[in-house]
Amino acid sequence: MKEYKDLNDFFANIHFEQIAIKYLESNQDYQRNVSEAHVKRAVENFDPYQVNPVKVSRRNGRNYVFNGQHTIEIIAEVTGSRDTLVWCMIYDDLEYKHEADIFANQQKYVRQLTAYDIFNAKIESGDEEAHVIKSIVENYNLTLSSNKYPHTICAISTLVYIYEKYGCKILDATIRLCVATWQGENNSLSSYILKAVAIIIQVYQQELNEELFKEKLGLIPINQITRSAKAMQNGTKGFGYAITILNFYNHRLSKPLEVSKLYTQKQTRAKTNELNLFKNYTNET
Known about the structure:
Number of strands: 7
Order of helices and strands: EEHEEHEHHHEEHHHHHHH
């Protein structure tokens, strides 16, 4: 560890200025290419309170951006002008190699926010979606957590995914069915199980007999479902879990649910993804 002898050694020699975007350069070889998709997404959800100062190395009278190249492109797009002033954190004592080293290591000692951290912050901010999800979970005597304990759900991002893709009722039905079937066993509330059960409920609606589901699947240990799903190797893991659970449900039924419906949904989703990729490609070209 480097030894710091003076208080000033703890801080870089910087100052702040507002600089027009057109006077900022962000084409250094160590940087990533600007992601048009990221810029477009950020513009559509622009929030000035999320804008950070751009880090700039001033060398030979020129302003080289070494952190914030997407920021300046987003602001330029939002304002429609490269004459827009942005707040910059100016470093006057860097060489090119030092800039590249800072860029390479800027995330090395940063603790990334977890899905639980983000969700908890949304709860504190009064976010309606987060509060609805939390209330559904707590209605079944479960808690949200970043660590796996009995009767807890750690798969926060999966809950958000189900809520946003299928809606409040499907999320509620998914948690209700999982809890009733496996009695809150830890792995029964994992991301793959929750997503698989949500898919089955969404696809089959009234065709699915929940009492029969609880009776038959409740006899199947989660680790057996997991082994069978992994053995299928039929594409996405979530889909494999859905097929596996449906196969256990259908076993020895005189009128089993049509597995083809799940495959139809998967194919529809794949075609949608292909169409989106094609649209992105044509827009870029």
